[in-house]
């Protein structure tokens, strides 16, 4: 709105708690309230940044205990309020499609680049900004630090989940009840209250809602279940995944007896040891199915110094190294299969051979090939079959010099007859490609599994 009048008539207007003036300039240009308001917002935010920087650089060691406690609460409340300001700004930026005009794929992507946050954090922030725009009660609660940002996320998810199957009145009451009665609870407990909020505000529909929610959670958990064992490249493996409630209960029941507290291990270390022990116990049973024609097992190839009578560094089928101490621990409770290696790593002798590629003979194939021997294939030995280079039906022996490990895909490929496989002079398999792959048909080898 334009504020017209003589230059001598200037009245104060208060924006954002700061007194400013509005009137007409000497040139007669009209100055609007919005101009002062925008300037006020910019100036206040700049002042906030300066004040925050000054506080961050001020030592706090001299504060008395009571002041120190009061200060942490004050800073925490201010943090929640400033987050509300940031969410308002993000909502306005999103509403104006500013990220799109700046060639960003979405507001979340734009925020990731502008604020240097993860994409997941950016998406959660955009979602919460949209929710605050639609839920004035929650917006007011965060703007006054009546709820924390974590609690606001929980309330936002709760009202979103309830909105699909409940009336607007029930959703509004659930939101107000959570904010009014449960904000003194930390987020984990607050989340539990949110999950049961219908029992407080609409008990007549709570049981049916719980049943639907349980079914929905079960379907999502089954759809997204996962388990990943990732090589970190520094001797450690990262275990990640998702389980549904039933599967998690089974895993916890198996691990819990092996997680008894002691003074030498942290709880996380005890759980890690318990997982390995459960798998170790499973390997001792007769119930696990065969894996690649042999019982599930851990295989280690290790050199032995006959003169010093010492074990060297061991090597797993995956190529990972084990210390001599780790090898000795495994050997304390294992069946030992001696394999004698020549100077170039050729297998010179293996324990008792059998008719099929199982037992000691399969172990010899694994020790020599390390996995699928076809050039360029990285399939592990557990996924491979023993293949007769000269077919058994043609009189070929089930012997190391007539066997090669192949994954299912390359086993079928070799049986089609276009590729040829033969044993080279050094006792390792090599493959001859068909003319349409290589007109010169030069022999090829798998170097992925090579250890020497």
TrEMBL record:
Keywords: Endonuclease, Hydrolase, Nuclease
GO terms assigned for molecular function: endonuclease activity
One Pfam family in the UniProt entry: DUF222
Residues annotated as transmembrane: none
InterPro entries named among the record's database cross-references: DUF222, HNH_nuc
SMART domains from the UniProt entry: HNHc
HNH nuclease domain location: 360-412
Record bears the keyword rRNA-binding: no
Superkingdom, taxonomy of origin: Bacteria
CDD domains associated with the record: HNHc
Protein name: HNH endonuclease
